[in-house]
Amino acid sequence: MMSLIFEPSTKQQIQTLARSLPQALLLTGADGAGLLTTAKYLAGPALAGIIQPTNKDGQADASGVIRINQIRDLRQYTRGVANSKAVYVIDDASAMNHQAQNAFLKLLEEPARNIHFILTSHQPNLLLPTIMSRVEQLTIRPISEEASRLLLAKHQQLDTTAIAQIMFLASGRPALISRLAAKPSELADIGAVIKDS
Question: Are residues 169 and 127 in the same domain?
Fold first, then answer.
């Protein structure tokens, strides 16, 4: 299916959505659940663009915001009728400022044929209720301890201490498990932060 492992009922829902993608879908889950990877998988070859938070200079910045000009640009891209399916991902949609959310709402109210939107959010409560009412929602649930261990088994360079630390820190979040397993040096950084607190 893809590089991430999913909780069984979540996997079944993803497979169903991949066959018939709604006009607007919101993926929610904890940080490290793999929302963006899941969105890219669902979009497949129809992925037309990814909108992410930016800083005031327009550079990608995970702690930035999604601005109204980004949504206006998206509106231009999606005007008219697409000849084939096009999917746009709004990564960390809850980072849209109020004006951007209102502009995006207009896109949802006037859907163009063959245009689909996948939003990701770790904090869906920050989205306008009117946006929430117009999207289908899927929560990416944590995977089991057994599935977490299977995912970690692919990383044979890890010792038992690192595996135990990753299991504790990631708590069933597959993208975080994969990231920490691929870069064990991050474990030391996280450990230092925990020790200081």
Answer: no
Do 85 and 113 fall into the same domain? yes
Same domain, 42 and 132: yes
Confidence of residue 12 (pLDDT cuts 50, 70, 90): very high
CA atoms within 13 A on the CB side of 10: 21
Among residues 91, 60, 90, the alpha carbon closest in space to that of 78 is found at 90
62 vs 53, 59, 70, 96, 172, CA distance in Å?
6, 10, 15, 12, 22
Pair (19, 110) in one structural domain: yes
| Distance in angstroms (rounded) separating the CA atoms of residues 151 and 66 | 33
Judged on CB neighbours under 10 Å (0-12, 13-18, 19+), 197 is exposed
Q: pLDDT tens digits, residue range 92-126?
A: 999 999 999 999 999 999 888 899 999 999 999 99
- How many angstroms from the chain centroid is the CA of residue 56? 22
Q: For residue 73, how many other CB atoms are within 10 A of its CB?
A: 13
Domain count, the chain: 2
pTM above 0.70, yes or no: yes
Is there a contact between 131 and 105 (Cβ–Cβ < 8 Å)? yes
